[in-house]
């Protein structure tokens, strides 16, 4: 039914470039291995200026200067196992994007102006092991509902304003400082799935109480994770932030 609007390239399809050059598509899904995809580069995709859904699980050749500017109609972008660092700075150009998944990519940061993506609802950074912190403007994504950030260490203050969030995976627990702490989870009353990391940073129950988990009537899944203080020898590691009395 969608043959005139969609291109789905899977294993065994060796004619991707020809199809991309001969027709305009609204949806692209390229899930074939690298040897079969040939010399597919970002320039080949940029000709598809009307595309609304882009799904790719292959290595696409990119060079400095490549951007997302031509994809002004994009609503869904799912890229896996590719070096998309060159594209990160132009992410904010995707004004209509609702769904952004950058899985197992080599990005180390998100653009500071990601807050301009006002319609973004889904952000998935699973497998992006080089990513450390989220930009301050992340708190401006008022329509965000799903956030997967298992490798993020710090979240900026103001996170409490994202009251539409339903699923939050990888929230790093902190008590104070310049970053988001557990008490900013208090107003997030729509949460259904919550995974908390680094709970060893919370030294008192009073801080945890500020998250108001007992008031989240929609919560159906809660995962609590503490980094182990034990080494391979079964002894407590040094410099783990515990007092002699706690040991």
UniProtKB/TrEMBL annotation:
Domain Disease resistance R13L4/SHOC-2-like LRR per the UniProt entry, residue ranges: 57-201
Entry keywords, A to Z: Repeat
Pfam families, per the entry: LRR_14 (PF23598)
InterPro entries per record: LRR_dom_sf, LRR_R13L4/SHOC2-like
Highest taxon above the source species: Eukaryota
Recorded coiled-coil stretches: none
Official protein name in the record: Disease resistance R13L4/SHOC-2-like LRR domain-containing protein
């Amino acid at each position: 039914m969608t043959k005139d609007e969609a291109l789905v390239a899977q294993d065994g399809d060796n004619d991707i470039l020809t199809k991309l050059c001969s027709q305009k598509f609204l949806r692209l899904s390229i899930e074939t291995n690298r040897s079969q995809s040939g010399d597919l580069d970002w320039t080949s995709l940029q000709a598809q200026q009307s595309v609304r859904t882009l799904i790719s699980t292959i290595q696409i050749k990119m060079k400095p200067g490549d951007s997302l500017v031509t994809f002004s109609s994009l609503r869904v972008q799912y890229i896996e196992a590719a070096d998309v660092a060159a594209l990160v700075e132009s992410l904010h150009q995707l004004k209509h994007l609702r769904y952004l998944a950058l899985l197992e990519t080599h990005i180390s940061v998100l653009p500071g102006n990601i807050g301009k993506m006002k319609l973004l609802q889904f952000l998935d950074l699973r497998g992006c092991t080089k990513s450390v912190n989220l930009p301050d403007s992340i708190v401006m994504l008022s329509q965000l509902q799903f956030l997967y950030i298992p490798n993020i260490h710090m979240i900026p203050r103001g996170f409490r304003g994202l009251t539409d969030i339903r699923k939050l995976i990888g929230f790093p627990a902190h008590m104070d400082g310049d970053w988001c702490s557990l008490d900013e989870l208090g107003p997030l009353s729509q949460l259904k799935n919550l995974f908390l990391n680094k709970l060893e940073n919370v030294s008192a129950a009073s801080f945890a109480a500020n998250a108001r988990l007992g008031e989240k009537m929609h919560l159906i899944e809660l995962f609590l994770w503490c980094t182990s203080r034990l080494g391979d020898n079964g002894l407590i590691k040094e410099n783990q932030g515990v007092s002699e009395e706690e040991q």
